Amino acid sequence: xxFFIRYRNALLRGGYTRLLKPFFFRRDPExxxxxxxxxxxxxxxxxxxRRIMARLFSYEHPSLEQTIAGIKxxxxxxxxxxxxxxxxxxxxxxxxxxxxxxxGSITGEPCEGNPKPRLWRLPESQSLVVYYxxxxxxxxxxxxxxxxxxxxxxxxxxxxxTNSPETVDTEAGIQDYLKAYREFLDIGDYITVNVSCxxxxxxxxxxxxxxxDRLLSVLGETPANKPVFIKISPDLSPxxxxxxxxxxxxxxxxxxxxxxxxxxxxSEAVKERLVPARGGLSGKADEDVSNDLIRHVxxxxxxxxxxxxxxxxxTADDAYRKIKLGASLIQLITGMVFQGPQVISxxxxxxxxxxxxxxxxxxxEAVGKGV
Length: 371
Ligand SMILES: Cc1cc2nc3c(=O)[nH]c(=O)nc-3n(C[C@H](O)[C@H](O)[C@H](O)COP(=O)(O)O)c2cc1C
What we know:
Elements: H1 2-24, H2 29-45, H3 47-57, E1 66-68, E2 71-73, E3 77-79, E4 100-107, E5 119-122, E6 127-130, H4 139-146, E7 155-160, H5 170-183, E8 190-194, H6 209-220, E9 228-232, H7 238-249, E10 255-258, E11 280-281, H8 284-301, E12 306-310, H9 316-325, E13 329-332, H10 334-339, H11 343-357, H12 363-366
Parallel strand pairs: 3-4, 3-13, 4-7, 7-8, 8-9, 9-10, 10-12, 12-13
Antiparallel strand pairs: 1-2, 5-6, 6-11
This protein binds flavin mononucleotide.
């Protein structure tokens, strides 16, 4: 069985990187993204499609299972927010090997996003430049799509403030978050409050501790019967992160998603000389800063909050590094774009081996051991 998984993944990886990726990478990135969503939706609607995907991409192992914040996860690798913006892939994602998925970000009002072009590849840096600006169908439409459904894996709902001049005022922004939050109180397994979108009108005002405190107070007036996470930027100073941690301590917050895209174009990880001026960077350009943030949050909180580690995860080693720094769960998008969808089961397979080599029986035992 182990041999079969390795052989299968190697074949799929070869097929993706030699055939599909060169074809995809010649086309406009947003068009490819849209085609993937359409194909994923079709596969999810078809029992045969779901069966074939499971054969190609599934992998399970007891040492990958965890219960975190009351939610059972079959494995720690999740789809990060921003790939399935309108929650159209929930039928197929469990069959691609994901242990969970975060849909959205979903805003109070429908939002066209920023003008095109708004997605670019940086092939040398193994990164994407993202300037979507929270394009999505809005909370009412998306909640209607999901209400009453059951999902094969835990589903997180990422909510954000509508990208428009109307929500720049703090109270208007809070009401916008509240609208999305209320729509999803009875849908999905957890909520992530995304306060770190780098591409929104008026910036990311709720990174500021006072405003975040006010936002969480208003949301907290209607308690969610599920865990609430906060997604933060890797570009914050340690002092700003500490202030956010202190705010979280005053509210019912399960943890942090570390991290969103970075705005830094001048790190060593960015190899291209010409990088679009707008947007945030994902992938390898985001990895070290996200790891620094995980390390910082974990060393300040030591298990008090769950950490979801995201940014530049392409391999089992990348995921294991984040786990050792304090992350209990991992998310990714860019690794899948550059390596293909088998990367999820490859990472899970590799994690089992690394846990075994280090004498751990489960992911939870390894969390934070590198800090
Ligand atoms: C195409 C794309 C769209 C994204 N949109 C969102 C979003 O709507 N909300 C959000 O919280 N993060 C968004 N992100 C950030 C990712 O969730 C993640 O934090 C970041 O890309 C780092 O992970 P990665 O290196 O595995 O891609 C987006 C990322 C990409 C690549």
